[in-house]
Every structure is written in C-alpha cells, then in structure tokens.
Amino acid sequence: MPQDLYILAILDGLSYAALLFLVALGMTLVFGVMNIVNMAHGSFYALGGYMAATLGLWATSQGLSPAWSLLILPLAAVIIGVVFGGLMETSLMQRIYSKDPILQLLVTFSAFMIFEDFQRLVWGTQPYFVSDIVNYLGTTEVLGITYTRYQLMLLPGVALAVFIALRSFLKFSSVGRQIIAVSHNREVSTALGINVKRISLFTFMVGSMLGALAGALASPTVSWVPGIGGEMIVLSFAVVATAGLGQIEGALVAAILIGLARSFAVYLMPEVEVLVPYLIMVLVLLFRPQGLFSVAQARRV
Amino acid sequence: MKMSLLSRSVIAATALAISALGMTGALAQSKPAELKVGITTFLSGPASVFGVPAKAAAELYIEQLNAAGGINGVKIVPTYIDEGVGADKLLSEYRRVVQETDTKVMLASISSGNCNIIAPVAEDLKVLNIMWDCGTEKVLEDKRYKYVVRTQANATTEMVATVLYLLKTKPDLKSIAVMNQDYAWGRDSWELFRNTLLALKPDVTISAELFPKFGATDYSTEISRLQALRPDVILSTSWGGDLDTFVRQAAQRGLMKTSLFVLPLAESSLERLGTTLPDGVIVGSRGDHYFLHPEHKTDAKLNNFVKKFKEKTGSYPIYSVYHMVQGLDGLVAGYNKAIKANKGQWPTPEQVAEAMRGMEFRGLTNTVKIREDGQGLEDQLLGITKKTAAYNFPTLEKIIVYPADLITTPVGQKSPEWVKTIKPELLNNPRIKQFN
Fold it and tell me: Out of A120, A129, A222, whose CB is closest to B44?
C-alpha cells in the first residue's frame, strides 16, 4: 500500500469515527448514569436525520441560504432530544430504572420498534435527503483526491467540540457534577439532596440529543430510509462495548479505532470491512470482558 | 360430561369445515364469485422503496381491471403480505393466506431470496405463483416447476444487456471497478456481469471489487480508493437508499467526473436523485419500462396509467410498478387463455400455469413471452442521463432496446456458464434497436 493511501485512509476513518463517536457518546452517557443499555438510541439517530431533512426542506422552500443548515442541524437534534427523549424518559424509563436488566432491554427495544413505525407513519418509506450544506461548503483536494470540506473538517470538528464541551461540563458545572454523583450511586445522591429524577431526565435528553445530532449531521450525505436506526444501534453498541460501558474517553478512542480499522480494511482487505468493528469488539472482550477502559467496579460517566 | 360435549362440538365443527373444504374443491371448475390473489411486497424495510409504489400500482390497476369487468366477469380481490418481516414469517403468512383464505393465485415476490424459498412451497401447495419482480436466474434454472412462472426478465438478461450497452458506449474501456451491496444480488449480478464482460472483452482489468455492507451509510473510504484507482468505469447494481447515498457522496466528491458510472437499477432512483445525478451516466431499468419509452410514449395505455399513478402517488412509475402491472396483465392473459382452452369453463390454477407457458402478453411496454420453463422474455432498455428543461430530474437519451431472446440463457442451460460463450457479434445484431 503506497504511503499516500495511509493518509487517505486516516482521513476517511476519522470522519467516519466522528459520527460513530457522537452516537456512542449518547449511549454510553445514558448507560453511565441510568445503568440501562438503551436499544432505542438508534431511533434518535434516525429521528434526528428525518427532522434535519424536514427542516432543511422547509428552509430551502423559504429560500434560506444553505449556511442556515449550520443552525438547523443542531436545532433538529435539540428538538428530537427534548421532545422524544423527554417523552421516553418520563413515560417509560422512569418506571424501569430498578427493574431487571432483561426487562429494561425488552422495554427499550419495544420503544425502538414503536419509533420505527412512527417514522414510517410520518415520513413514509421513500428516501429523504437535503444536501445543500455539503455543496455550499465545497471541496478540498488532498493528494489528488477530492474531499468535501463537510466530512473532512466539519464532522470531526463538531465531534471534538462536543467531546470537549461535555467533558468540561461534567467536570466544572454544578449539574455536571451532580450527574457524576448520580452515576456513582443513585441512593447516596438522593440522600445528598440531588434531585435524581431531574438529573436522569436531563441526562437522558442530552444522550438522545447526541444520537439525534449524529443523525442530523449524517443526513446531508446519506439518503435517509426506514430502518437506518437499527444499523446504528449495533455499531454504536460495538463501540460502547469495546470502550467499556459508560466510558466517555473510551468511546472516543474506540470510535477512532473502529473507524480507522474499517477504512484500512477497505484499502487492504475489502472483504472483511463489514466484519471489522465486530472483530475488534470480540478481540477486546475476549481479553478484557469489561472493555478497554473500564476499571473494575468503579463506574464513572 | 362437559368435556365430552365440548370435544363433540369440536369434532362436529371440524367435520363441517372439512366438508366445506371438499365442496369448494368439487366446485373449483365453476366460476367463482371472486378471484382471490395474494400479493407479497415490501411494506417495511429498505426495499419498501419498491414495495410501497408497487402496492399503490396494484391497487390502482386492480381497480381498473375490475371496473372493466375483471377476468371474464370475476373480480380480483387482493390480499397484501409484507415481505419485510423476514423469510420465515413471510413463509408462514404465505401458507396462512393460501390455506385459510382459500387463495389459489399468488404474486410473489420482490426479493430473490424470497422467490427461492417460496417457489417450492407454491409447488407443494399447488397454487399458481407468479414471480412478479425478483431477478434471480437460479430459481428457474436449477429446478423445473409446474406452478411457478415469472412475468419478467432475470438477472442474466439484465446484466448482459448492461454489458452490451456499456461496450457500445465506451468500446475502448480498459479498467472497471465494482461497488455492489454485500448480499446475494450484489454478488450474483457482478459474477454475471464480469463473466459477460470478460467473454466479450478479455483484456479489461478489474481494478477493485468492493462490497460494502447492505444498508451502509458512509462510502467515503470506498470513494477515496476509487478516486486513487481512477478506473474507466464504475459499476454499481445497488438500489434504493444505498444507491442514492453512494451517488450523492460520489457526486459531491467529483468521482462521477473522472469515471463513467454504470447503474443498471438507477431508473428507480432518477426522480428521487433529481439533479444530483449528473449527465452521462448509464442507467438501466430492469426491463424496457420507462415512461418516455421511445416506442410507447404516445401509447394510450402507458400514458393513461402513468398519469393516474402520478395523480395517486405524486411520482412517476418505477420499474417495480411496471413489474406489478405486468404480473397482473400476465395473470389476466393466462386466465383468458386457459378459459378459452377449457371451452369457456373456469380453469384450475394448474390449467392457468400450463396456459401461461408459451403465452405472449403485454404489460405497459413491449410484449413479454413466457417460455416453457416459466421464464419471461422481457426486453431491456438502457440509456444515458441528460438533464432537460421539461423535467426536474434527468431523463434518458441514446436509448437502446435489446430483444430479450438474444440475451437470455436458453432453456436447460445455466447462466454463469452460458454468458461465457457470448460472442462479440451479438453487439451488432440488427434486431437491437437504437433510438436518439
């Protein structure tokens, strides 16, 4: 493999990892605080994309400049996170926090299926896409290969910004510290006067928002079709499991690892591309069943 | 006492049900009040981009047929089954519709995988099964069926036509790369395409064979690799959201400027992709259906249907829609032929299946002939995209229509071997019709 191609593979891997990281981040955050693997997380990814496409179509019909997408995409994520995340937390999640993990899985999985049908009901079965922003930002040449600036700079940039913002939010803000406290022990946090119910709702909304943000950011380059959320659950679960459930830095590293491995596979052994994320997951879990970054027992956000 | 009363009534009910069954069996020859037809189509999952428009077409066309008196006065009553539920569940639904609602005619299915599992079951249940959209050539080449027919072409016909069109458009091509979905169709269509291409032009280099996951959403690595390789031609038999996504990402990154794209299923994406699809892309339609078909664009039947379909759904028909209409037209033609052969009596499904072999009928475009092995001979239309002022999506120019019998594996032979024997003379066959 010529040296140039290494650079290309790294660039492709990073832009893929960026989206993967955002989805996995939401999932791992929710797990860290509530101790629930939310199978419906992929639905937020799908809903975020649909909402972004709908808002984008509306903006185009109003004759707004594509630059507005930079505002519309996060807006779509916030709407989905607050409305659907909020709805799911208050109506479903609150009832199952203390229940058996198997039941939790089943309940969130049924929520996933309900959301799937809801998407078909609202958006139908034909693919959606609004890609004005990608063309608006233009392309850049790297070693004779054309890249869109959107995937080369915007996606990794947003992912990195979100990571730093979330990290400092958890570390320095009062709400963030409460979240960490709840993730360590719900009962003790309640005894300390933290409104655990409110913190759970807030965390779940933020987690859903992150999933929706990844969907919104992916929507300008992907044709949005029914069933798109299912793919994402499996992949992001592979990232989260590789990193260790509840690990934020771990999710970043695992997403990059899987993203790079996948893009190198396309160059070197295209046949195994599909397998790569799961191979990595299996390898890691064989030797470290708790994931790469989990420290046994002490769970952190 | 109570138990035995219950069990006695169960026995009585069963006996009644059995005698009722026997009666319908005995009366099968007399004209029924209605003809029940089961139709499998994707109403969920990614392939619903084909299945949902096809269902709309079935509703529209059956209404039209019934308004015109149905089949010899018998109205068609459809039951729809979702193919998106997975093979096992589909099969039990299929059996349920056949056995519980006494349906003797089925139109199944879109997915080749589903056709492969349904064909033997149809044979077992003795129901007429019209394979109305699936493309796998293997199902009718590997086994002979009595009750199973196909009202459209198979993958071989489609891929050979595509190779011929490619060699006509770019006779000097030196390298080709493929990017297909990683499942049966993606793999099988490439095998047929590659064998045909190498038989006609042995010196072509295959630069890359990429099979990303079915339903993949990010092709940037594949696109970078293709840009680095710069093959003359890039083939993709992908469809639906996968094809749309690939085309968009490739167009956004200028890949479509450096390589000639060959997209044999893109007729079904033209309207959705709109202006994203550049000029100069080779597009196929899995048949000769196209609303601007050069030989039929002024035809009343085609125009009338296109207009009604557009009113109902807001879109132009795509190939699955034409295939649905073709399946229904084939069914009607088969019944009419069987009724005639049966001296005006209502035929059994077996007689219809028999009558359909050797029959010629017309859907919305060119006539289709059904061979003795049940395989339909459906002509193939390909063209090159060109944006015009008349539509807000590209239409096809430089259309060529290939007669199906020239490019379909003869009865009794296997496609992967037969395509290797195709000779370059086929390229200049005078029956191939070129339009502008």
Answer: A120
What are the structural domains of chain A?
3-287 (1.10.3470)
Whole-prediction pTM: 0.83
Structural domains of chain B ordered from first start: 32-153+301-370 (3.40.50.2300), 156-285+379-434 (3.40.50.2300)
> What residues of chain A lie within 8 A of the CB of B225, using their CB?
5, 8, 266-267
ipTM over 0.95: no
CA distance B400 to B169: 11
B positions 218-237 inside 8 Å of A (CB): 218, 220-222, 224-225, 227-228
Q: How far apart are the CA of B60 and the nearest CA of chain A, in angstroms?
A: 19
The pLDDT tens digits of the residues spanning B184-206 come to 889 999 999 999 999 999 999 99
CB distance A266–B227 less than 8 Å? no
What pLDDT digit, counting tens, does each position of B289-299 carry?
999 999 998 99
